[in-house]
Amino acid sequence: MQTVGEIMTKELVTVKPEDSVARVANLMERTKIGGLPVVEGRRLVGIITSRDIRRCHPNRLIADAMTKEVVTIPHTCSLWEAKELVERHCIERLVVVDGDYPVGVVTKSLLYAELGKYIDALTGLHKAEFIQRKALELLQDGKEIAIIFLDLDNFGAVDKELGHVVGDEILCRVAKVLGSLVEEGFDYLFRYAGDEFVVVTVKSLEEARKLALRMVNAISEEKWPLGIKVAASAGVAGGRRASPRQGDFEPYTVSDLINMSSLASTRAKKEGRQVVIAGEIGLREAGCI
Amino acid sequence: MSSKTGSYLRGSEPLRKAEMTIRLSEFEIPPMQDALLVGKKAPIGPEAVRRMVDALSPEQYEIIRIEHHVFEAAVLKRSLLKLLPAEKLLPILLEECERVSDEQAVVKAQVNIVIQVNRAVDL
């Protein structure tokens, strides 16, 4: 997982509280930097932005022009945590800290450019790299998750017979169909790879199964170009616990769930079923579902 | 007229005189007596004022940050606040100062407080 420390601007230009607004305005003009951390000794005491500068008389001290409440982020945090912070506080830059000391700055535009690498250009969905992050975040919030792994049936034949342009068009439409079924705040849709899609949901196993079934049905019922028949199979795993996990290593938990749901999807395809729940037989025997 | 002036200038250099007036008075340290109200866009802000009074008259002034449409801080002499608490003094100062100034200004105020006391004593 990429951290803000890896992408931040490390050549930190700082100013002091006793500097004048005029001097700092010149410095910003010269360095083309729109926001500078204010340090006293090595300690961060504020941040001065070009907006602050515009509002103030040039004779003022930076101490009288700066914003004292600085939003900081530890250098070990992920890019997604940084993105959430800039959006929550509606700010353009975050000061990156190591303990109590500023070590760099990360801007909103840089963050978005880096995070853009995790967005699938074809469908506009998040790529597989984001699944782990979102699933971990939900687990850490004490939510149980279920994973739906959905892949299109015999999609390779579409590419071979009708060409990749048509294939790509279908994938975009699939993303839209699936996107129309997810519930904001409960379900998170990703393109896993090729013709495979994943949903991380905080719903129960049974609700996840129903969602998977709705998705598979919606794909079958959609009117596809050139009269093509598109179908999908889905596997579902997780969503059984009512309380937070204890002692499990969360990244493994997420990887396991993805793997189990993927295998269940393969089984669904082999058995000609729409949706298969991972570990379904054992649970049925035990009378759990 | 013009030929006369021309001949005058040609004949000699213009006369230049300097007059000097000196007014002497005592410089106040700090350059305020009782109160300052700092405008939101004034050339000096509350932190600069704090540094000034701390350097020149340590512990004699109190800086109060305020939520006001014209001023952002008030600097009040502590001895004044013994006579009249800030919550009584400040609203009056703000009301009067906002009539005569704006956000760009730092307003110096001289405040005289006279306390009148009438007490009855049993004889």
- Give the SSE order of chain A as H and E letters: HHEEHEHEEHEHEHHEEHEHEH
Report the major sheet of chain A.
Answer: 6 strands, mixed
Specify Rg of chain A, calculated over alpha carbons. Answer: 25 Å
Helix content of chain B: 25-40%
How far is the first residue's CA from the last residue's CA of chain B? 92 Å
Tally of DSSP helical segments of chain A: 11
Which outline of chain A best applies? elongated
Your description of this structure?
Chain A has 289 residues and is of the alpha/beta class. Chain A is 43% helix and 21% strand. In chain A, strand 1 and strand 2 form a beta hairpin. In chain A, helix 6 (129-140) crosses helix 10. The longest helix of chain A is centred in the last third of the chain and has 22 residues, at 250-271. Chain B is of the alpha+beta class and 123 residues long. Chain B has helices at residues 2-11, 46-56, 78-83, 86-100; strands at 35-39, 61-65, 71-77, 106-109. A four-stranded antiparallel sheet of chain B has the order 2-3-1-4, sandwiched between helices. The longest helix of chain B is centred in the C-terminal third of the chain and has 15 residues, at 86-100. Chains A and B meet through loops of A and helix 2 of B.
